[in-house]
Amino acid sequence: MLTACSCMYEKVIEITIAQLGFSNFYAQAGNVQWAYDIARINPKVLQNSFHTKSGHDVELRSFFKEHDIEYQSFYTLNSNRDAYRHEAQSKWRRKRV
Known about the structure:
Distance between the termini: 49 Å
Order of helices and strands: HEHEHEHH
Strand content: 5-15%
Shape: elongated
Number of helices: 5
Largest sheet: 3 strands, parallel
Helix content: 40-55%
Mean pLDDT: 76
Low-confidence stretches: none
Number of strands: 3
């Protein structure tokens, strides 16, 4: 990861790339803090699959919000079928029809 980051830093410095981000970054907040602290240029966005297995990235989202980094989820509906099958969702859907 550090090698890839070094290459990307150079492109940002050359103004070839406007901003950096993480994708598929599933780490504990302490590791994220470490990566953030050693980065010469900090990321502006994180793109992660949003699902129960990762705890919906609660710690990561909190860290990134605190550091003004945008969180973008993907596979949000597909990975959380239990959420839209939940009774509360069913009640809401019935009211809408």
